[in-house]
Write a structure and sequence with these properties.
132 residues; 24% helix; 6-stranded mixed sheet; alpha+beta; 3 helices
Length: 132
Amino acid sequence: MSTTNLDFARRYLRAIEEGATGEALSAFFHPEVTQREFPNRLVPNGATRDLKALLEAGERGQKVMSAQRYEVKNALALGDQVALELEWSGTLEVPVGSLPAGGTMRASFAVFLTFRDHRIYSQHNYDCFEPF
């Protein structure tokens, strides 16, 4: 069954919400994927990750968040490119800053995806966290 890149991106977000890690998460990425997270409150110097680092970050995230939710506010797709404007919220498993365990962290995200061979080949994140 054929799927559009935008549909694939939405499935990717749902998989993250459902706690996908390891092979379940890896299935969304091209083997040569790179992800660039631009500087933000959690990653002040930004980060560039390959597939291994992305999967490790997913595992670490499971230890910090008990739940996550993505709300797509706007989406554009053209060819192999998808741009998403997202509202994100996550329930904390552990305290972060002034937020207690069980508290909700919130952010507005812009995510730009490039696809190759029907998988995410590059991902750029611009994450704007609410104060915590």
